[in-house]
Amino acid sequence: MKLYYFPASPNTRKVHAVALHLGLELDLVWVNLLEGEQHTPALRQLNPTGRTPILQDGEFVLWESTAIMQYLASQHPNDLWPADARSRADIVRWQSWQLAHWYSACQPLQFERVVKQVLQLGAPDPAIVAQATERFHKEAQVLNQHLADHPYLVGDRLTLADFSVASDLTYAVPGQFPLADYGHIRAWYDRIDALPAWQQTAPQG
Ligand SMILES: N[C@@H](CCC(=O)N[C@@H](CS)C(=O)NCC(=O)O)C(=O)O
């Protein structure tokens, strides 16, 4: 299977980390988003949205990181994607929350405080930071409360849900995400951060 990826991206990271954790071999193809490679005709044909990651498994092409994670984890039985309907629904619940709510709290902080600096796009916009910070607290309270009673998001084991939600904390330190009051999130993230697959997919430099 071939993964078209951009290693610095949290969306790529959650997919790549799942593959590494499960011992699945991927043929990695680096797409240089900074050079606009995602918009070349060949890549647009694979993903008309012009984004990464993209998985190619023979004739089958799949984009959207969450769908790719589920497809990878469906290759053979494993704890990340248990077979029973309730566990799967619970995992999809957290993955849906991540896509709809957590991402939109974390991404603006990452963009304003990290991406803008790297790409020399100017100073963070205080209004965007303030709005994202408010959103972050609203969502982080829910996550922290859940993790007060659970070591992982679903059941008592690591699942795809943890990789999805943790991916948005990839830039929590340089993005100055306001995590001080959320000890359960920090303790849980430390567990994810200790995974070899998470270490191997950490952004370089
Ligand atoms: N919902 C998509 C988001 C993918 C996405 O936004 N990828 C970014 C990198 S993090 C990208 O390729 N951006 C290139 C662009 O927008 O031109 C997923 O989960 O895969």
Overview of the structural elements:
The protein is α+β, with helices and mostly antiparallel strands. The protein folds into two domains: 2-73, Glutaredoxin; 85-197, Glutathione S-transferase Yfyf (Class Pi), Chain A, domain 2 (Up-down Bundle), CATH 1.20.1050. It has eight helices and four strands; from the N terminus they run βαβαββαααααα. The protein has a four-stranded mixed sheet with strand order 2-1-3-4, with helices on one face. The longest helix has 34 residues, at 85-118. The mean pLDDT is 97.
Bound molecules: glutathione
Q: Give the H and E element order.
A: EHEHEEHHHHHH
Please state roughly what percent of the residues sit in beta strands, choosing from under 5%, 5-15%, 15-25%, 25-35%, 35-45% or over 45%: 5-15%
Sheet with the most strands: spatial strand order: 2-1-3-4
Distance between the termini: 27 Å
- Give the number of helices: 8
Outline type: globular
Low-confidence stretches: none
Return the average pLDDT rounded to an integer: 97
List strands and helices in order, with pairings.
Layout: E1 2-5, H1 10-22, E2 27-30, H2 41-46, E3 54-57, E4 60-63, H3 65-73, H4 85-118, H5 126-149, H6 160-167, H7 183-193, H8 196-200
Parallel strand pairs: 1-2
Antiparallel strand pairs: 1-3, 3-4
The site of glutathione has 12 residues, from helix 3.
